[in-house]
Amino acid sequence: MERRVVITGMGALTPIGNDVNTFWNNAKSGKLGIDFITLIDQDLIEVKVAAEVKDFDADTLIGKKECKRLDRFAQFGLVASDEAIKDSGIDLEKEDLERFGVMLGSGIGGFETIETECTKIATGKSKRVSPFFVPMTIINLGAGNVAIKHGLKGPCTSAVTACATGTNNIGDAFRTIKHGYADVMLAGGAEAPITRLGVTGFHSMKALNSDNNPARASIPFDKDRSGFVMGEGAGLVVLESLEHAQARGANIIAEIVGYGSTCDAYHITSPAPDGSGAAKAMKDAMEEAGIKPEEVSYINAHGTSTSLNDKFETAAIKKAFGEIAYKIPISSTKSMTGHLLGAAGAIETIICAKALQEGFIPPTIGYETKDEELDLDYVPNVGRKQELEYALTNSLGFGGHNATLLLKKWK
Question: For the structural domain made of 257-409, what CATH number should be given?
Answer without folding.
Answer: 3.40.47.10
